[in-house]
Amino acid sequence: MRLPHHYLLDASVVFSFDASGFRRHARAFDPADLEVDLSGRVCLVTGANSGIGRATARELALRNATVLLLCRNPERGQRAEDELRAETGSESIRFHQLDLSDLVDVRRYAAETAPERIDVLIHNAGLLPLERQLSPQGHEITLATHVLGPLLLSQLLRERLASGARRGRIVWVSSGGMYTQALSLRDVQWEERDYDGVVAYAQTKRMQVVLAELLAERWPELAVNSMHPGWADSPGVERSLPTFHKLLGKRLRTPAQGADTVVWLAVADAAEARSGEFFFDREARSPYLLGKQESPERRRELWDACQRWLAESAPASPPEPASAQSGAGA
Ligand SMILES: NC(=O)c1ccc[n+]([C@@H]2O[C@H](COP(=O)([O-])OP(=O)(O)OC[C@H]3O[C@@H](n4cnc5c(N)ncnc54)[C@H](OP(=O)(O)O)[C@@H]3O)[C@@H](O)[C@H]2O)c1
Q1: What is the pLDDT of residues 263-318, one digit of tens each?
Q2: What is the arithmetic mean of pLDDT over 97-123?
Q3: How far is CA 229 from CA 110, 224, 254, in A?
Q4: What DSSP line would sit under 176-223, residue for residue?
Q5: Is pTM beyond 0.70 here?
């Protein structure tokens, strides 16, 4: 049972998102949830060479999963594979090169490299840029990395996630920062206003939460969830938010604490039937500060815009043969 002071500490945000919040919430965890043998299960983790993604990959490997580290940089990806193999004693960890922001690379990865059967897909790769950057297809970089790449990868791997004996799972690593932004598609490419990386980050993290809900509705054969990890010490936070990193110091969670709910959603039996819900510290939470969801029209607008951007990036289909154009037998 939650005591009144828990509600106050959670409302403070700091004493909820920080390491003390994790320790307090963890008193309600069932340790048996993560006492699982993942032998035979194939888990893909994007952005697995650093921070929360690396810690997630490590926990999965320690439970005997086959873990594929989807990283954009070959040196960093290979180093993560070598280090994680040494740390866990697992030989079932492999680095696969993939730049999530590049929709051509996502299509190449799905067609040529991704395994035939997948149990878990974790969308962890993320960034908070200080200046506006564009992806190879000309999309603002947080939109490409947090939204378009992961959505395309999910769509291309959907059947492979559904082909195993267990219900396939997709986990979106969003951020508590998304609480600051309502779903908006206004100038989402940042062409008409001065760039603000914090806002771009939070808006695309909000989109991740909505997309996870939409995918859960559309793909009942899979479990699709989003979550936020609280505030964890990672190279990304140190690089992008140096003042915040310095101020919080030891109050920050460890990467493993930040990864805990990612791993729980990926493998715990207790999580399997909770598709569509948004989690923090293994507990379903409202993704809205005042509990009010955006309109169905606004959610539909997001879905349609994403599908349009993905279609624009699709390779042109080969021209139909002349006989087909003029009608068979004509
Ligand atoms: N740490 C926190 O407190 C916190 C709070 C809320 C949400 N999150 C979320 O947690 C996730 C992990 O963040 P983190 O703190 O662990 O940051 P991090 O240490 O910077 O790790 C981010 C990972 O994403 C990778 N990445 C970025 N762009 C990519 C791309 N285009 N293709 C493939 N990989 C790409 C990075 O690769 P490189 O090494 O090549 O850059 C890195 O491996 C992010 O989605 C972040 O938004 C973190």
Answers
A1: 999 999 999 999 999 999 999 999 998 768 899 999 999 999 999 999 998 888 66
A2: 98
A3: 27, 16, 10
A4: GGGGG-----TTTT-SSS---HHHHHHHHHHHHHHHHHHHHHH-TTSE
A5: yes
Residue 328's pLDDT band, with cuts at 50, 70 and 90, is very low
Can you tell me the distance from the alpha carbon of 223 to that of 261, in angstroms, rounded to the nearest whole number? 15
Active site residues: 201
Mean pLDDT of 181-188: 96
* Residue ranges of domains in the chain, CATH in brackets: 30-314 (3.40.50.720)
Is the pLDDT reported for residue 324 higher than 70? no
Which protein residues touch ligand 1 with a CB less than 6 Å away? 46-47, 49-53, 71-73, 76, 99-101, 124-127, 145, 173, 175, 228-229, 231-232, 234-237, 258
Mutate to test the pocket of ligand 1, among 45, 108, 127 (most ligand atoms within 8 A of CB): 127
Q: Is the dihedral of CA 57, 60, 62, 66 positive or negative?
A: negative
**What 3-state class would DSSP assign to 327?**
coil
User: Is the separation of the CB atoms in 35 and 63 below 8 Å?
Assistant: no
Pairing of strands 169-173, 120-123: parallel
d(CA 280, CA 175) in angstroms, rounded, equals 10
Calpha distance 252→20 (Å, rounded): 9
Residue 157, pLDDT above cutoff 80: yes
Q: Whose structure tokens read 């930040």?
A: 258
Residue 322 Cα to ligand 1 midpoint, Å, equals: 49
Tokens representing 224 are 């699709």
pLDDT per residue as tens digits for the range 16-45: 999 999 999 999 999 999 999 999 999 999
The enclosing H or E element of 242 equals helix 242-248
Distance CA 54, CA 62 (A): 12
Joined tokens for residue 94: 């492999």
CA distances 177 to 181, 199, 204, 286, 288, Å, are 8, 9, 10, 14, 11
Average confidence score pLDDT of the chain: 94
